[in-house]
Amino acid sequence: MSVLQGSVRALVGKTESALIQGRVSLALRIIHDFVERIVTEPICAAQVFASHDLDQLCLHIGRQNLVNLGKLHEDPWSDSTIRPRVAYIVSSLQKSGGHSRLVQDFVRSQPEKNHLILSTEVGGPSDKNYLAKLFAEDGNIRFLCAPRGDLQSRLTWLQSLLHAVQPEHVHLFNHHQDSVAVAALIPELELKGSFHHHGDHHLCLGVHMNHLTHVDLHPMGYHYCRDKLGIDNRYLPLTFEDKQYIPLQTEFMRGGHLTTATAARSNKVEIPYYVSYLDTIPHVLKITGGRHIHIGRLTPWSLHRIYSQMRKQGVQKDRFVYIQWTPSVWQSLQEHKVDVYIASFPYGAGLTLIEAMGAGIPVIMHQHMFSRVLSGLELAYPEAFRWADPEDLLAHLTALEPERLEREKRLSRLRYETFHRPEILRDYLRDPDSMQLPVPPLTSEFRPRHDERAAWVELQISLTHIIYRKAYRIMRSIRSYCA
What we know:
This protein has helices at 2-20, 24-39, 52-67, 98-108, 128-134, 151-165, 179-184, 219-227, 266-269, 277-288, 300-313, 329-335, 350-358, 372-375, 390-399, 402-419, 422-430, 450-482, and strands spanning 85-90, 114-119, 141-145, 169-173, 193-196, 213-216, 233-235, 259-263, 291-295, 320-323, 340-342, 363-366, 385-387. The protein is of the alpha/beta class. A seven-stranded parallel β-sheet has the order 3-2-1-4-5-6-7, sandwiched between helices.
């Protein structure tokens, strides 16, 4: 711990030194790069969630920048409309991912207001073509991206727009490392706002922004932030538009074989871990004799790994159905007549799990080796099967009967109706202070597997040493040759 604290103190010193020299962009970059390093190191996942010191640094930068703000941007609504205005600060928006869908739900839950979505583009370039088509018919929505430039110019752009528009509420949906977004929304702007803690499985900037309402979107995050970090937070469950539920008896296991599915992109399943999604799914296909539907973009290397393992298991290639993107996971699961949804691992995906439950699909949850947040057990109905060892998953799939699937179908839909209906979000946004939403308790069945974690970390360290040793030998050989 002392080493980590020392590195943070050094980072604070470097940032403050940059500010004294007037190098605001450098100060923002130092914080951004530090968080980026933590976020991209798998061993750090779900270990440290917040830093009070880094959040205070961001506020300090934002205050210094605001003093020299200069000319304000023009109001995007120049017609002086009397509609209330709501602003959303994001790091980037894409056509896939729960983050983008969440922002859309907030916008469409308040059709009587004007909505301004401001992207710093710190999280990468947004999918502007998709978003232009998405919001083309909505005259009350503006989507603006920060112009290219250094981080200070983006901060100035963002603060200038917020100052000009004067929204009645600002919703902060920043990526973990977005120092620009967090630095922009300082108390001196005198704007009411909320920090939505969706960057919930890594160190994330903005968690300790005490002048904003801290909103947690799932039970695991709510309990951790309140009980461990001492934050006065609110629980607002993820919600999803009700696409369709077919309550009548349906035929499960057509032809006597299970159809399973998972919806997740590479950032959820292509993570170093003691059990691999890429290796497990071919085994699932072998023992079920059915199909597995994967929704979400995977890297070419991962697809090669899955097909290679399928060949070794004697599983035909067409039994793995790969769908890079779909406008509705909910409807795709129904169209492919999925019997049971296997939640992604090692990182769970909350919004797609909710779509599966809304569609009435029975779900299977993975218990992460050390993290409640990455497990997401509390999002599912309590009776959902949970597994830690792949052998337990395979045994459960082998024993599944249509009667249990029919029973869990009703439980899955009931969970959606209780916690994740879109009316919950609409009621909250209408009057946040009056909403007293029940928070599901933490399950007592979660058991961290510290021995498994220790073995996995040791393996990662050993692999790193092997790589370093090989690189060292190659460098010595090159030097000897050159000499």
